[in-house]
Amino acid sequence: MSQMTSETSGHAVELAAANKKKTSKDKRKKFMKAQKKTPIEKQKMIWGPPQDTQQFSSNWKKLLEIMQTNPDNSKQKTNPKVKKENFQKRTAKASPNSGPAPDSNTSQNQGRTNALKDGKGEEPGKTEHKASKRKLNGSLLKSSKQMTEKKKDEEPTEKKPTEEDLWFDDVDPDDIETAVGQEAADIVRRRTGVKNTDAQSTERALVKERCFEGLTRAVAMDCEMVGVGTDGEESILARCSMVNQFGKCIYDKFVRPTEKVTDYRTEVSGIRPDDIRDGEDFRQVQKEVAEILEGRVLVGHAIHNDLKVLLLDHPKKKIRDTQKYKPFRKLVKSGRPSLKVLSREVLNVKVQQGEHSSVQDAQATMRLYTMVKKDWEKAVKEGKLHGVAEKAVRKPRTPKKKKTTAQANTVIAL
Q1: Which pairs with CB-CB distance under 8 Å and at least 24 residues apart come from 340-343?
Q2: What ranges does the record list as Polar residues composition bias (predicted)?
Q3: Is the dihedral of CA 169, 173, 179, 184 positive or negative?
């Protein structure tokens, strides 16, 4: 019995070992099969666009399977009544004047619903939405109008200046006009006795009425120039004007340019291309001006510039330059006063407002001369050409010759 039991136990051990061997082999086989299958499964799990033809076909098959198993339930028909109710609730919340509607409106709404059932008119949701928009727009317009009215009320109205506001007296009315306004300048002019100057008033102040219109002993001249050359810095004659002692114009001609004009200087000279295109010949103008000036007193402002452009000369004793007259310089406190400043301060007349006029400038210089004519001519007789005695020109001293050594020895020997 003991032998039988030992045999059976040994046989069972052998069977168990054989089963173990079989299981390990099977496991290996299964593992190898799994490794072969994993790359395909991994390819299935990879997200992204397909790269091979197999992936295209497999994806398409999977999509068809998913479509068959899961039918499209996303397209569920919504109830239009629910939509309308939700939209009506939103419009009621958005409208500012939400409240119970009167009975008259309910009857109108019932009529609209009946019309919609018949197929006529618009949906009630749309009409209510439009009505709410109109109400909102109306309320916004009202609020904007109210705000603008409030701003208008709050804006301070500009008060007109009075004489009490303009208590100062030492300010030029022209400066007040540019800074404050015309009304304030008029008040100052009225108080100080200054009159408004326009074209007619300036002509009355500079020209004497009912007087001799021909040549007189003294004549005033002024010229307008234009620029020539590359930068227009060089000047040539464009217009020449002359007036007699009473301010009457005796000569006024435009001159045809002798060179190509590069700068007309219209803002100052008032010359335009049409003015000088058919002008007088320069030599003819030069000859006529020289004939008028012969033996007469020439009055002007910085007259040397005009004579230079005309290529003429005139005796110094016969020239009266208002820019160099000493009393005018003291009055204006300037070494080289402009004609505009002298006319304003001495004559109380505005000239050279914008484009210049050679006739008006000549009239202003003549008026300045006639105002001080007696004193000026008296000073000229005393040898004071510009109201002041001219300094005598001193001759340069000759240097003393130094004595040489030979000369010194001869003096000692003597």
Answers
A1: 342/301, 342/368, 343/368
A2: 51-60, 67-79, 94-113
A3: positive
Which residues, at least 6 apart from 14, have a Cβ–Cβ distance to it below 8 Å? Answer: none
Q: What is the mean pLDDT of residues 246-266?
A: 94
Q: Which of 240, 249, 235, 250 is nearest to 206 (CA)?
A: 249
Radius of gyration of the chain (CA): 56
Greatest pairwise CA separation for the chain in angstroms: 191
CA distance 381 to 392: 16
In angstroms, how far is CA 389 from the centroid of its own chain? 53
- pTM for the predicted model, two decimal places: 0.51
Query: Can you give the residue ranges of every domain in the chain?
Result: 171-197, 207-381
User: What average pLDDT does range 267-285 have in this prediction?
Assistant: 93
Measured CA to CA, the distance from residue 201 to residue 182 in angstroms comes to 18
Eight-class DSSP state of 346 = I
| AA identity, residue 174 | D
Question: How far is Cα 209 from Cα 219, in angstroms, rounded to an integer?
Answer: 17
The SS3 assignment for 210 reads coil
The pLDDT value recorded for residue 256 is 95
Greater confidence (72 vs 305) lies with 305
Task: Write down the CATH number for the domain with range 207-381.
Answer: 3.30.420.10
CB 245 within 8 A of CB 216: yes
The residue behind tokens 């002692």 is 245
Which of 259, 216, 217, 219 is CA-nearest to residue 237?
259
Residue 316: φ, ψ to 5°: -65, -35
Confidence of residue 150 (pLDDT cuts 50, 70, 90): low
- Kindly tell me if the per-residue pLDDT of 275 is higher than 80: yes
What CA–CA distance (Å, rounded) separates 238 from 258?
10
Cα distances from 344 to residues 6, 208, 299, 324, in angstroms, run 152, 19, 19, 17
- Distance of alpha carbon 379 from alpha carbon 374, whole angstroms: 9
